[in-house]
Write a structure and sequence with these properties.
The chain is an alpha/beta fold. The chain is built from 12 helices and 13 strands. It has a single domain, classed as NAD(P)-binding Rossmann-like Domain (Rossmann fold, 3-Layer(aba) Sandwich), CATH 3.40.50.720. Bound molecules: NADP nicotinamide-adenine-dinucleotide phosphate.
């Protein structure tokens, strides 16, 4: 919940200005936190009429923010996915402008999909990327482009993102939630409050000189889809949809949905939580879904 997040999070370091490229689900949440703390934040969206848009960045129409918005930015967060060719929309359109800014920290939101399939084993930042899905190969390209940009970049690898308005509750309530059983299969996840809280934690650590190049964000409990969906139905007090076996269910899944079930990994958060001492707001899906219920949209 934003109020709790504001109370427990450090603000942006004094004199900072954060420029967020891509104020979608995560970007908006980070912007809301910083605004509530009285911090200086500018957020792009593809259209100015979208909520929370301060200015437009759209790599397809080539609209870029004017100097007025970029000026004096000390921190950047990019939440924009790769383009269909694996190019990074921000770097491809704004590299020169970014090089001229007094940047202290640049965060790039990537995905844990770059680790590929570990057959359910734990995976940490020390494990080499091994993407199998084309979209994860494109993502790794973008990570490399950011890392070789010469900017002070930190790569943040995210598993499934959820939060109020985008969770198993929404899916179950809409009747689109399916309870699928694939024995041994788990998914890692992170609540959007923890994305915002942990990013501010990283920004403040970087300000003190501690800045690992790559960080996984994930909660403590990779969990089967079946458990999460069942808990969502229980919280909503509505009957659970029938449990479907994966072999049958997969016959009418979209290629995108199917691709998620083809990889099985447990994302370690030891770097974030033990080494860098970030305290998760939602250590597991139960805590996170209860929050989604309280803030149900
Ligand atoms: N969703 C997940 O479970 C998940 C898991 C792991 C990693 N990720 C990645 O983590 C990042 C944040 O995720 P999210 O779910 O918060 O993202 P999101 O809600 O989909 O937001 C993506 C943002 O990128 C902007 N954008 C997309 N294409 C663009 C383009 N061509 N030019 C300019 N802006 C563009 C969107 O603009 P508008 O605001 O105009 O829509 C939006 O603000 C994304 O890169 C996502 O791929 C997501």
């Amino acid at each position: 919940m934003l109020k709790d997040l504001v109370n427990r999070s450090l603000g942006l370091p004094k004199g900072s200005k954060l420029l967020i490229f891509g104020g979608g689900f995560s970007g908006q949440h980070v912007a809301a936190l910083i605004r509530a703390q009285g911090g200086n934040v500018v957020c792009t969206r593809r259209e100015i009429k979208k909520p929370g848009a301060d200015c437009v960045f759209n790599s397809l129409t080539k609209e870029i923010p004017s100097k007025y918005f970029l000026k004096n930015a000390t921190h950047i967060l990019s939440c924009i996915p790769p383009d269909p060719n694996g190019g990074d929309p921000v770097l491809m359109n704004l590299m020169e402008e970014l090089q001229d800014l007094p940047l202290q920290w640049v965060g790039y939101l990537s995905t844990t999909g770059v680790y590929g399939d570990t057959k359910g084993k734990w995976v940490s930042e020390e494990d080499p990327p091994n993407p199998t899905q084309p979209r994860s190969k494109r993502r790794l390209n973008c990570e490399k482009a950011w890392q070789s940009s010469g900017l002070p970049v930190q790569i943040i690898r995210l598993p499934g993102i959820y939060g109020p308005g985008r969770s198993a509750l929404t899916a179950i309530k809409s009747g689109k939630g399916r309870i699928i059983d694939k024995p041994g299969q788990v998914f890692s996840r992170i609540h959007v409050d923890d994305i915002a809280g942990a990013l501010l934690h990283l920004i403040n650590l970087a300000n003190q000189g501690e800045k690992p190049k790559i960080i996984n964000f994930a909660d403590n409990m990779p969990t089967a889809n079946k458990e999460v969906q069942s808990f969502a139905a229980e919280l909503l007090g509505i009957p659970m949809p029938p449990i479907e076996q994966f072999e049958l269910a997969s016959q009418n899944m979209s290629p995108m949905a199917l691709s998620f079930w083809q990889e099985n990994r447990r994302i370690s958060n030891k770097m974030l939580c033990e080494v860098l001492k970030y305290k998760l707001i939602h250590p597991d899906y139960r805590s996170g879904l209860k929050d989604c219920l309280m803030n149900y949209k």
